[in-house]
Amino acid sequence: MDIKAQQTKLANNLGKLLRDNFGKGPEAVHVTIYEPYVVIYVSGFVSPMEQVLLNQNEELQVMTTRELLVKTLEPQITGQIKGITDLDIQHLYYDWNLDHHSGIFVGVCLDDLTEGDPYPGKQAIHDRIIKMSEIAQKGPEKISSYKLSDRTLVIVREGILVAIEKQLISLGFDDTLRISKLLWKKESYDKTMTMMRY
């Protein structure tokens, strides 16, 4: 099966998996396979119950529920990827933009990644990511990026956790920390982007 066929099959399967478990699937699923990455972008993805909660400003409830559901679905998601692409996913990352009813999953096949090939504007993007990281927490010790397609750019930041975040993770509060950061990111995004324009 060629890459396009794999991407289409994976999009269909993951759309069904999300629909079966969330009660409503995404309106669209776009998959990019570029070893060692598999990137899955979903749009139009919010269930009726989630929408009721969002209308009542209960984003924390929606994020907490999604965190629990995706953790239980992770073996099925990585299993689908393995079955269709034969890629062994070592790490699966995900993020949501509830305002836009979208989300992204990024599967990575390797533990250690080398710097991606050059592309136009790469250093400017790295500089911007460093500045945004410094506003949110601290500048990364290392940053690398990989252009997978005209619409997909993967950026890896290493060494961004401060001491208290590391302590929370070691005590088992990684889910709470992750949800808190997602909510903080949403609240501060407009302010951060405004600051970055000047």
List keywords for this structure.
6 strands, single chain, two-stranded antiparallel ribbon, 198 residues, alpha+beta
Q: Which helices and strands occur, and which strands form pairs?
A:
Elements: H1 3-22, E1 28-34, E2 37-43, H2 48-55, H3 59-85, E3 91-97, E4 102-108, H4 122-136, E5 142-149, E6 152-158, H5 163-170, H6 174-197
Antiparallel strand pairs: 1-2, 2-4, 3-4, 5-6
Structural summary, described in words:
The protein has 6 helices and 6 strands; from the N terminus they run αββααββαββαα. The protein is of the alpha+beta class and 198 residues long. The strands form 2 sheets. A 4-stranded antiparallel β-sheet has the order 1-2-4-3, with helices on one face. The protein has a two-stranded antiparallel sheet with strand order 5-6. Helix 1 packs antiparallel against helix 3 and helix 3 packs across helix 6 (174-197). It is globular and about 40 Å long. The N and C termini lie far apart (48 Å).
Write down how many β-strands occur, each being a DSSP E stretch of 2 or more residues.
6
Biggest sheet: strands side by side, in what order? 1-2-4-3
Number of helices: 6
**Helical percent range?**
40-55%
Largest sheet: 4 strands, antiparallel
The succession of helices and strands, N to C, reads HEEHHEEHEEHH
Using only C-alpha atoms, the radius of gyration works out to: 17 Å
SS-based class: alpha+beta
Task: Characterize the overall form.
Answer: globular
Which stretches of 5+ consecutive residues score pLDDT under 50? Answer: 189-198
| Distance between the ends | 48 Å
Beta-strand content = 15-25%
Mean pLDDT: 86
